[in-house]
Amino acid sequence: MKLNSVRRVPAAPRRRNNPTNIRASLLIMACAFSFSCATTEKPKVEAPPAAVVHAEQPQQMPALPPPEAKAVQEAVTRVFKDSAVIDTSRTPNFVAGDFNGDLSQDIAVVLKPAPEKLSSLNGDFTTWILRDISAADDSRVPRLRVAANEVLLAVIHGYGSQGWHDAQATQTYLLKHAVGSGLKTHQPKTVAIENQGKQLPQLHGDVIGEVIGGKPGYLYHAGATYSWYDPRTFKGEPEPVPFHMRPSKKIKS
């Protein structure tokens, strides 16, 4: 009996790796890896804009309209009541400016004593400070008094944003020998430019330019008082004399 012969199935031929297929596979794998990284990467948050630092602006005095005669008269009445009146014979007879440098507008007014009210200007408890700009140190002279025919300059210091218009603006200097011609407000930088090369006092605010006794100069706030600056003769501000070194005033019995 013959055994059935077994047919051998030939083995499948070994597939050779195609270089083109290999490159395509690597490309697909790279794309898949890049996509997975992109999907897992945290979203970027836009950085906030850098803070803008503004330079601090210098403080400025509030702008006020030019002074009018009616408002100036109201300020004079508020301070002096009926003891002084505006000298209408002079033009101009008032100027405005920040004379003490506190960023509040002041007013300087030419006054004369009201008839029969001289005693009020020379009272013991006045609300204003009487000074004589012609005296280097008026603390060494007898008590200042206002004469009946004297022309005075009152500087009413402002209060707050409304300046000398404010009802609380009552601090006032009443100045003797301080009225001349050509009354005008000047800024400190203008005075420095016009008098370049000359010695200057320390200016805290605006100054009042005028001609007194034929000599042009400036009236300026010098801390505890107002002083006169003549560019031709100014040699520096005198050193303050301590109170205990001032000569005592003899009282007549």
Written description of the protein model:
This protein has 253 residues and is of the alpha+beta class. Helices cover 18% and strands 21% of the residues. Strands 1, 2, 3, 4, 5 and 6 form a 6-stranded mixed beta sheet that branches. A hairpin with a 2-residue loop joins strand 8 (207-212) and strand 9 (215-221). The longest helix has 22 residues, at 19-40. The termini are far apart. The model is unreliable at 37-41, 48-55 and 241-253 (pLDDT under 50).
Question: Descriptors for this entry?
Answer:
253 residues, alpha+beta, 6-stranded mixed sheet, 10 strands, disordered C terminus
Give unreliable regions as ranges.
37-41, 48-55, 241-253
Estimated share of beta-strand residues:
15-25%
Average pLDDT over all residues = 81
User: Can you tell me the overall shape?
Assistant: globular
Helix/strand-derived category reads alpha+beta
Order of helices and strands: HHEEEHEEEEHEEE
Fold topology:
Layout: H1 19-40, H2 69-80, E1 84-86, E2 94-97, E3 106-113, H3 118-121, E4 128-132, E5 152-156, E6 172-176, E7 181-186, H4 188-194, E8 207-212, E9 215-221, E10 226-229
Parallel strand pairs: 4-6
Antiparallel strand pairs: 1-3, 2-3, 3-5, 5-6, 7-8, 8-9, 9-10
